[in-house]
Amino acid sequence: MEFIKFEKVRDGKYLKNYELTYRNKAGREKKYEMVSRRNLNGVEDIGGKPSGVSIIATYQDKMLLLHEFRMGVNRTVYNLCAGMLEPDESIEECILRELYEETGLKVKHITKILPPSFAAVAISDTTTYIAFVEVEGDFEDHTSENEQIDARFYTKAEIKSLLETESFSSRAQLAAYFFAER
Asked: Looking at residue 168, what DSSP letter applies?
């Protein structure tokens, strides 16, 4: 594949839309649309900087899941606690802030932070860290008026049941499955 042209076609508040023109392996010119959370100056910037974190949180033998309304799918789904890095914020600071904002919980211990991975490779260059944490504290609602989030801990048996009948984000579904099966 050979890139020919790179053009920003929309500059939204949170998402920037780009049109990429490339030559495919048959030698034909093709256009591809993508979105980014960042301003990109050229193809060399694509996928260059992590933008957030997804948090796999546990307390004793339970896993934290958010049951939240997501406008992009117009329904309530099970999801991980997650959020965007603020300018000049470390990944550890982001984990603490997002967990507190969405649940009121505090981080007891960060077990592991995986290197950034692509969140939606078919449409975006967005990369996020995945963090594994142990948490403590009590649930409190610190969400904005634009968020509808019900956070709680689930046992392995409860998660197995949810996986059979409920809608999940793909990362939350994968994390929940492996939590419930271990």
From this structure: B
The C-alpha torsion from 100 through 106 and 110 to 114, rounded to 10°, is -20
Q: Give per-residue pLDDT as tens, 106-122.
A: 999 999 999 999 989 88
* DSSP H/E element including 177: helix 170-181
CA distance 147 to 170: 20
Spacing of C-alpha 70 from chain mean position: 12
Look-up of token digits 């117009």: 74
One-letter amino acid at 150 equals: D
pTM of the model: 0.91
Tell me the C-alpha distance between 171 and 173, whole Å.
5
Strand 127-136 relative to strand 52-59, pairing: parallel
Q: Which residues pair with 114 in a beta bridge?
A: 130
- Please give the Cα distance from 180 to 176 (Å, whole number): 6
Rounded CA separation 3/22 (Å): 4
The DSSP 8-state label assigned to residue 44 in this structure reads: G
User: Which uninterrupted H or E stretch holds 114?
Assistant: strand 106-118
